[in-house]
């Protein structure tokens, strides 16, 4: 069993499995509480930039659909005529020092795969940097009038006007323990202090209730869409891949969700789970380049230079009920002071 598989079994299994790690979890909880108290008392400074900031993050380690939700929000704000800056840490990249503006042609090994993904989806200003305050200021200098932070719920140094916590409705908060005993970066009560919670659902019912008592809660459906050829840009339905066995690659926080979605679509796949943000190297691939391969869009940006002719990424579609989308956007616009006029939900 791999380390990642072992952690998943520990974090999302019965609580008693993690019992030996509870003391470390309590220590982590104490550190988190002390750090938050230092920011609350202003002993550690909180920096506000000149434009509004919305943070889209999560409490758990691993995939919840945070990046698709952040991209959806950036697109909706753009449709309403606002110039959006998307700010990321640049995980998987090597950016150090000054923040860097990301373009669709940027190298994901330098700036991170999620940053290139946002730049490709555009139009928005995408900036990566370890110092999120400096990165947000760089986005403002580049013309952004609102910043959407993809991740950073725990990055308290950057003042924010609105917080969205994204939770996988099927996996919930796991065993409810903090790292390393469980998947949580902060105690479950943190959900009561954010402005909105987005529960992401894939195929199948939610198995854990994580609905907090106070903030607005919306549900978003994450659905696999069409496959797009990495080389040619051709679009095909997933049904058209049912004729033969396929290889599937996912280097995301929850690769099993991607594989389950492909199997639910009736595809016969050989699954190759990778660590989140893992680099793809043509020399070490466990299949020939000429093989038909399906992967996530996040993985596809890392292999554009060497993709085979039958390599495809599968679009991930985010869907809110119209009323929920309108209410969430109205809350964001009200808290950030931006106008509400304009464009329909796209």
Summarize the structure.
Strands 1, 2, 3, 4, 5, 6, 7, 8, 9, 10, 11, 12 and 13 form a 13-stranded mixed sheet that branches. 27% of the residues lie in helices and 22% in strands.
Question: What do these coordinates show?
Answer:
With 346 residues, this protein is of the alpha/beta class. The model has no long low-confidence stretch (mean pLDDT 92). Helix content is 27%, strand content 22%. The protein folds into two domains: 44-221 and 319-336, Rossmann fold, CATH 3.40.50.300; 223-317. Strands 1, 2, 3, 4, 5, 6, 7, 8, 9, 10, 11, 12 and 13 form a 13-stranded mixed beta sheet that branches. It is built from nine helices and 13 strands.
- The CATH topology annotation of the largest domain reads as Rossmann fold
Question: Terminal Cα separation, in Å?
Answer: 43 Å
Taken as a percent bin, the fraction of beta residues is 15-25%
- Secondary structure class reads alpha/beta
Which sequence of SSEs, written as H and E, runs from N to C? Answer: HHEHEEHHEHEEEEEEHEEHEH
Question: What is the CATH architecture term of the largest domain?
Answer: 3-Layer(aba) Sandwich
Shape: globular
Number of helices: 9
Largest β-sheet summary: 13 strands, mixed
Superfamily (CATH H level) name of the largest domain = P-loop containing nucleotide triphosphate hydrolases
Overall strand count: 13
Q: Round the Cα radius of gyration to an integer and report it.
A: 20 Å
Helix content: 25-40%
When the domains are counted, the total is 2
CATH class of the largest domain: Alpha Beta
Give the low-confidence spans. none
């Amino acid at each position: 069993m791999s380390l990642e598989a072992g952690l998943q079994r520990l974090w999302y299994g019965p609580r008693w499995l993690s019992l030996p790690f509870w003391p470390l979890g309590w220590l982590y909880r104490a550190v988190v509480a002390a750090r938050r108290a230092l920011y609350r008392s202003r002993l550690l400074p909180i920096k506000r930039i000149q434009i509004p900031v919305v943070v889209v993050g999560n409490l758990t380690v691993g995939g919840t659909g945070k990046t698709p939700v952040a991209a959806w929000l950036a697109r909706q704000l753009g449709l309403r005529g606002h110039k959006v800056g998307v700010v990321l840490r640049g995980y998987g990249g090597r950016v150090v020092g000054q923040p860097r503006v990301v373009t669709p042609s940027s190298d994901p090994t330098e700036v991170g795969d999620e940053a290139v993904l946002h730049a490709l989806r555009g139009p928005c200003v995408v900036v990566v940097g370890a110092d999120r305050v400096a990165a947000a200021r760089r986005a403002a200098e580049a013309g952004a009038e609102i910043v959407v932070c993809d991740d950073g719920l725990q990055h308290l140094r950057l003042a924010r006007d609105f917080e969205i916590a994204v939770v996988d409705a099927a996996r919930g908060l796991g065993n409810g323990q903090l790292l390393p005993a469980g998947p949580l970066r902060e105690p479950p009560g943190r959900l009561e202090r954010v402005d909105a919670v987005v529960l992401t659902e894939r195929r199948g019912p939610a198995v854990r209730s994580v609905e907090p008592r106070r903030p607005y809660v919306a549900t978003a459906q994450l659905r696999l869409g069409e496959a797009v050829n990495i080389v040619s840009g051709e679009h095909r339905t997933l049904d058209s891949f049912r004729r033969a066995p396929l290889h599937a690659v996912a280097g995301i926080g929850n690769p099993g969700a991607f594989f389950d979605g492909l199997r639910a679509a009736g595809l016969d796949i050989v699954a190759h789970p990778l660590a989140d943000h893992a680099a793809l190297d043509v020399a070490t691939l466990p299949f020939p380049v000429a093989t038909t391969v399906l992967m996530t869009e996040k993985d596809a940006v890392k292999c554009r230079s060497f993709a085979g002719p039958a390599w495809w990424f599968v679009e991930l579609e985010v869907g809110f009920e119209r009323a929920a989308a309108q209410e969430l956007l109205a809350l964001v616009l009200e808290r950030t002071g931006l106008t509400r006029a304009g464009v329909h939900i796209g």
